[in-house]
Amino acid sequence: MSLLQLEDVTAAYGHSEVLHGISLSVDDNAAVGILGANGAGKTTTLRAISGMVKVGGRITFDGRDITGVRPDRVASLGIAHVPEGRGTIGDLSVRDNLRVGAYLRKDRTGIAEDLELCLDLFPNLRQRIGSNASALSGGEQQMLAISRAIMAKPRLILLDEASLGLAPSTAQNVYRAIRRLREEQGVAMVVVEQNAMLAFSVVDSAIVLETGAVSLAGSRDELAGMDEVRRAYLGG
Ligand SMILES: Nc1ncnc2c1ncn2[C@@H]1O[C@H](COP(=O)(O)OP(=O)(O)O)[C@@H](O)[C@H]1O
Ligand SMILES: [Mg+2]
Predict the structure, then answer these.
(1) Residue 86: what pLDDT?
(2) In this structure, how many other beta carbons lie within 10 angstroms of the beta carbon of residue 104?
């Protein structure tokens, strides 16, 4: 059984349906990509999983039906969402943002170990540990947002366009850490990206969304070999 399963999921903002029946499954320790142009419904798919939009169909996590379950409850079940635009708390220090990430946990030793893991994955954050999040560069804020998710010790991380607005070398750094996180910690991931090259550096399989529906699905290698994917998302 998959860790996360979406079956024919619809989602709407008010009366306007923007997802029209998405199916997707993520196994334990696997990473699945969601590619697609601006407005295709990538963010909404993550919001549907997190309980932040009105959904239809069925979403299960770890054998439990989480369709329509509230965001705080979804988080407590082990799903951490790193939103588009990062959502760190600007007037808190890096250290305090990380503490906020661990607020549901009681295992002090585990928390200390995961703090060390974050600072090892993202050495920039170690140097900025006492700085306010608002003083960080865009890349460092993205590193902090991912680290805050790690501090919750999730089984599944939802990553929304982690490369957005970053210089290419910074985006590479961020994705190198995401890859390590997956390989060394075995965290499952849903990786939303417009940059397919970066997504393919982490995921095993992916879906392509077009106007709220799945237009293509397959393994990374299958997709990377398809002409329409190469033209639209791989610059060739
Ligand atoms: N808060 C919102 N209210 C109404 N419509 C929205 C809202 N957020 C997104 N949409 C619409 O939903 C569709 C999917 O958007 P989104 O999931 O953000 O796409 P993507 O992340 O792929 O760029 C778009 O047509 C967008 O205009
Ligand atoms: Mg988006």
Answers:
(1) 77
(2) 12
